[in-house]
Amino acid sequence: GQNIDQPTEMTATEGAIVQINCTYQTSGFNGLFWYQQHAGEAPTFLSYNVLDGLEEKGRFSSFLSRSKGYSYLLLKELQMKDSASYLCAVSGATNKLIFGTGTLLAVQP
Amino acid sequence: EAGVTQFPSHSVIEKGQTVTLRCDPISGHDNLYWYRRVMGKEIKFLLHFVKESKQDESGMPNNRFLAERTGGTYSTLKVQPAELEDSGVYFCASSFQGIPEAFFGQGTRLTVV
């Protein structure tokens, strides 16, 4: 079967660093995506990993280990506006995305 | 540049009625996807168009759902007749051919009562 697991909720403090983990088991793999979604808005693309290693983009970084079926999203210098749902998704054989249930991140002052 | 737009943003219909959702992808995007999120669950794939052709419709729940993309531009998703379990948020996404990044619309929240 196909399964993507990520924590349901996380809380962090403004200015801190938070790591959101994602593990996956899928029948095909064409890359792993992280999306950010604020309530009532469209999911917004954050990052894409297809090879092992770390991809850095400003305050956000994403890591992938294909052998372990594992990824994480790292958010640095947290801001209040980072409070949102973070969706881990794997692109399968036909490029359709398989999503996890999302991690709701609450950033507190 | 306009993003992916979906219409309507909300729809409340009675069980047994018909509803048509529309998605306008980003201009030039050959790939168009429909996804659905039922309350409390993850976003799930429904189908994928490449231009006007259905590439993968393995996620369509049943034959009450019909998707079209005439001319390879905008797409419609019709639910007929709607059932209570069809309630959820329907997302559309589009991307360039060969580019992995998909852009999502804000979704249509469908409530069947």
What labels describe this entry?
heterodimer; A: 109 residues; mainly beta; 6-stranded mixed beta sheet; 5-stranded antiparallel beta sheet; 57% strand; B: 113 residues; 4-stranded antiparallel beta sheet; 11 strands; 0% helix
Task: Describe the structure in your own words.
The complex is a heterodimer of chains A (109) and B (113). Chain A is mainly β. Helix content of chain A is 0%, strand content 57%. Chain A is globular, with a radius of gyration of 13 Å. In chain B, β4 and β5 form a beta hairpin. Chain B is globular. The model of chain B has no long low-confidence stretch (mean pLDDT 95). Chain B contains no helices and 11 strands. Chains A and B meet through β5, β9 and β10 of A and β4, β5 and β10 of B.
SS class of chain B: mainly beta
Order of secondary-structure elements of chain B: EEEEEEEEEEE
- Oligomeric state of this protein: heterodimer
Extended strand count of chain B: 11
The proportion of residues in beta strands of chain B is over 45%
Count of alpha and pi helical runs of chain B: 0
Detail the poorly predicted runs of chain A: none
Shape of chain A: globular
Q: Look at the helices and sheets of chain A and give the structural class.
A: mainly beta
Q: Could you say which overall geometry of chain B the principal axes of the C-alpha atoms support?
A: globular
Straight-line distance between termini of chain B = 37 Å
Helix content of chain A: under 10%
Reconstruct the topology from this structure:
The complex is a heterodimer of chains A (109) and B (113).
Chain A: E1 3-5, E2 9-13, E3 18-25, E4 32-37, E5 44-49, E6 53-57, E7 60-65, E8 70-75, E9 84-91, E10 97-99, E11 103-108
Parallel strand pairs in A: 2-11
Antiparallel strand pairs in A: 1-3, 3-8, 4-5, 4-9, 6-7, 7-8, 9-10, 9-11
Chain B: E1 5-7, E2 10-13, E3 19-24, E4 31-37, E5 43-50, E6 53-56, E7 65-68, E8 75-79, E9 88-95, E10 103-104, E11 108-112
Parallel strand pairs in B: 2-11
Antiparallel strand pairs in B: 1-3, 3-8, 4-5, 4-9, 5-6, 7-8, 9-10, 9-11
